[in-house]
Amino acid sequence: MTTLTATAQSRPSILRRAAGLLAVASALFVSACASMSSTPNTTPEVGLYELRTYTAAPGKMAELDARFRDHTIGLFRKHGMVPVAFFHVYTAPGAPADDRLIYIMGYKDRAARDASWAAFAADPDWKQVYADSQKAGSLTSKIENIFLSPSDYSPKLNMTSSTAPRHFELRTYTANPGKLENIHDRFRNHTMGIFKRLGMTNFLYWRPVADQPALTDKMVYVMAYPTPAARTTMWTAFSQDAEWKTVSTESEKNGPLLKSPGGVASIQMTPTDYSPVK
Fold this sequence. Notes:
- This protein has helices at residues 2-37, 61-78, 110-122, 124-133, 180-197, 228-240, 242-251; strands spanning 48-56, 82-89, 100-107, 140-150, 167-174, 201-208, 218-225, 264-271.
- It is α+β, with helices and mostly antiparallel strands.
- The protein folds into two domains: 42-150, Alpha-Beta Plaits (2-Layer Sandwich); 152-273, 2-Layer Sandwich (Alpha-Beta Plaits).
- An eight-stranded antiparallel beta barrel has the order 1-3-2-8-5-7-6-4, surrounded by four helices.
- It is globular, with a radius of gyration of 27 Å.
């Protein structure tokens, strides 16, 4: 009888301990789930960008797109590169097509970039893809590239695509001698904020890497807008904005910051269907 009584008395204690352990386990599970749901942005750190422009050979743009879509981007990632965005040059309805494909690549630094491209060029899979795609002639007639470092005020790279289509613009500014830092200061302290207020998206801002003489006194940046029409409307609003007029006047008291003519070069762009960022 004594043994039965002791056992009966111990059951509630055992049940309480079991319930406690279950509660702890449940709490740990919930915590783990919460951690997974709040996983920080996994966008890679990029210290060097490369802007590459391929001019497709006549009639070869579709094949060039297919090679990137089906093979090249995957091989870039295999070798540690960060394909950021791929664009066709936007042409207004009725205008002749532009045969350029413009894309943005990211790397940790120049050494990592060079090592990745060397490995890519030596990859047997790439060699086979390249040979197969070139059987009827080269897909490109010209390849150009420039190296860019993010400016201190550039937004952090965001690889999340918009749920709605976007229209992009690549802009290159050429400063008058000694005025480049004034342009950067104006963007850092004023222009970007006005752009944002007017609904424009500041995507990336760059300084050309210093060992490129042709890019001396230049800054390069990319903007995004909802549509081509919105881009036109937003820039018109910007040019008429009271704050911008004051900033522009104040910043140019000692002379224009931009070379004229030719101080602003603009290329409007449409993301390709295979672009990581759209």
